[in-house]
Design goal:
This protein starts with a strand and ends in a 15-residue tail after the last strand. About 30% of the residues lie in helices and about 25% in strands. It is α/β, with parallel strands linked by helices. Helix 1 runs parallel beside helix 6. Bound molecules: 5-O-phosphono-beta-D-ribofuranosylamine. The site of 5-O-phosphono-beta-D-ribofuranosylamine has 15 residues, from helix 1, strand 5 and helix 6.
């Protein structure tokens, strides 16, 4: 089976992008990272991608003013130019329109630093601590027009510890993100994920092997 061509969209440091690049170094991994796109010219992840020898594109949203359609056309052009099959959002801080999302339906995934549907949006670790959550984690999901929604492909959980700060909790969740994102992309690239009634079945089963919990993390 030929490997799926993947673009990773970033806005910042790109540690999840790096985890995907690392996973894809294995020739048996079903996806190759062919492109990294940033909407910010100064995103730290761009250098990491360049060092790894991966093509990079900058689609700077500030150049398009309020014209989101033009921004997304530029994004789409970059993806088409590199013959991308699957798009991974990894800390990409722009909302995408329903038009764009629908065009990539089933081929556009995101990682969110919380156990969705809890704590959609920003500052998830702070909010989990304030809420007194005992368990927190990360989710990889298909992107739909509504923010941080869409069928859940994989989740990883961590226990919230007494005395956790935003920094300590986010560091443990990030380690989980770096494990579940490559796993989720692998499942999608292998066409093993099917959405039925808004829920993902992996190989026809509700729970992907090894992806439901990362106990003790
Ligand atoms: C991650 O926590 C990701 O879940 C969220 O933004 C952060 C990006 O981090 N969407 P990085 O750029 O992958 O290091």
């Amino acid at each position: 089976m030929s490997r799926k061509r993947v673009a990773v969209l970033i806005s910042g440091r790109g540690s999840n992008m790096a985890a995907l690049i690392e996973a894809a170094k294995d020739k048996n991994y079903p996806a190759e990272i062919v492109l990294v796109v940033s909407n910010r010219p100064d995103a730290g992840g761009l250098d990491v991608a360049r060092v790894a020898g991966i093509a990079t594109e900058i689609v700077d949203h500030t150049k398009f003013g309020k014209d989101r359609a033009a921004f997304e056309r530029a994004l789409q052009d970059a993806l088409l130019k590199h013959r991308v099959d699957i798009v991974c959002l990894a800390g990409f801080m722009r909302l995408l329109s329903a038009d764009f999302v629908n065009r990539w339906q089933g081929r556009l995934i995101n990682i969110h630093p919380a156990l969705l549907p809890a704590f959609k949006g920003l500052d998830t670790h702070k909010r989990a601590l304030e809420a007194g959550a005992k368990v927190h984690g990360a989710t990889v999901h298909f992107v739909v027009a509504e923010m941080d929604s869409g069928p859940i492909i994989a989740q990883g959980a961590v226990a919230v510890r007494d005395g956790d700060s935003e920094a300590t909790l986010s560091a443990r969740v990030l380690a989980v993100e770096h494990r579940i994102y490559p796993l989720a992309l692998k499942l999608v690239a292998e066409d093993r994920v099917r959405v039925v009634d808004g829920r993902c079945l992996i190989d026809g089963e509700p729970v992907p092997e090894g992806a439901s919990m990362v106990p003790g993390a």
